[in-house]
Write a structure and sequence with these properties.
alpha+beta, Uridine Diphospho-n-acetylenolpyruvylglucosamine Reductase, domain 2, 3 domains, five-stranded antiparallel β-sheet, binds flavin-adenine dinucleotide
């Protein structure tokens, strides 16, 4: 059963910050609620105050800038992201991941900010946003700050956000000539969290980056050295770098050994998809 709490609806960032400050540490932010409400029902968290930030216009912004960068307001839903017609092709990994996040109905509520703030090691948007070099902007009573997504994730369901901070946006820099892809393994053909996921991005002047989900305490970014113009030339180094970085555990979704073998397989699949897209397919 859902424990009792007081619901507050913020219309502006300032109102949200004020509500959080006045009710801290017993307040939690609500976006789509697809993680928070489940957690409250299961007794994982029992906030006395819930601050709904979905109606704040700044958090609903979604646009591709003149430079090709993408600004995603924290409360943009996963389906709104998928419906963005002019998403730069270099951000294909983000589209791949959004399209396999839960179900269509859930994606109508689930937000981009909620997905990363919840900081599950298996969150689908973490790996693609990491390889695309995304940064997270947040507001607090002491001002605004921006951190790289790599710094943002600090552990299992932990981030660098303070209790008084609200994510305002996730910004993806212009991808340039980046080619990217995301692949995910799950226990069923239907919707499920990842047992392992891998994003890969090549080009954009930043070499080969891998984003690894569900194989460590947080989504991992791995940068791979080598001839970055050629997928085949970096394949072996990419698998070795990924395996050296991961620290999988046994849990209800998969065993650690299975996860290690899936890392090897999925890095290969992600690179195959990148190679196909470089040839104009996929
Ligand atoms: C049946 C089911 C299937 C799912 N399948 C998947 C899946 O396949 N892949 C996947 O990645 N996830 C999955 N999820 C998890 C969930 O849907 C996503 O993580 C979703 O993106 C969370 O977004 P939300 O808006 O619902 O977050 P909420 O539940 O509203 O919030 C989640 C957390 O983030 C905090 N938060 C939210 N917005 C902000 C903000 N602006 N600033 C600071 N903190 C904030 C909240 O306080 C809370 O702690 C699934 C969930 C369910 C119930």
């Amino acid at each position: 059963m859902l424990p009792r709490f007081q619901y507050h609806k913020a219309e502006t960032i300032e109102q949200a910050l004020d509500l959080l400050a006045r009710n801290s540490p017993d307040a939690r932010i609500l976006a789509g609620g697809t993680d928070l409400i489940v957690g409250m029902k299961e007794g994982d968290c029992t906030p006395k105050h819930v601050v709904d930030v979905k109606a704040i216009p700044e958090l609903r912004r979604l646009e591709v800038g003149a430079d090709g960068g993408l600004a995603i307001g924290a409360c943009v839903t996963v389906n709104e992201l998928l419906e963005l017609e002019d998403m730069p092709p270099g951000m294909a990994a983000l589209r791949d991941a959004a399209s396999v996040l839960a179900t269509h109905q859930l994606r109508n509520r689930a937000t981009v900010g909620g997905n990363i703030a919840n900081a599950s090691p298996a969150c689908d948007l973490g790996p693609p946003l990491l390889v695309l070099g995304a940064a997270v902007s947040a507001a607090s009573p002491s001002g605004r700050r921006t951190v790289s997504l790599g710094e943002f994730f600090t552990g299992v369901k932990r981030t660098c956000l303070g209790v008084d901070e609200v994510i305002t946006a996730v910004d993806v820099p212009p991808p340039g000539d980046t080619v990217s892809a995301f692949v995910k393994r799950r226990r069923t053909r239907g919707h499920d969290l990842a047992t392992v996921s891998v994003a890969a991005a090549l080009g954009g002047g930043r070499g080969l980056r891998l984003g690894l989900g569900a194989v460590a305490e947080r989504p991992l970014l791995v940068e791979v050295a080598g001839d970055v113009g050629d997928v085949e030339a970096v394949r072996g180094a990419a698998v070795r770098a990924a395996l050296a970085a991961v620290a999988p555990i046994d849990d209800v979704r998969a065993g650690a050994e299975y996860r290690r073998s899936m890392v090897e397989l999925l890095v290969g699949e992600a690179l195959d998809l990148v190679a196909e897209r470089m040839r104009g397919g996929g």
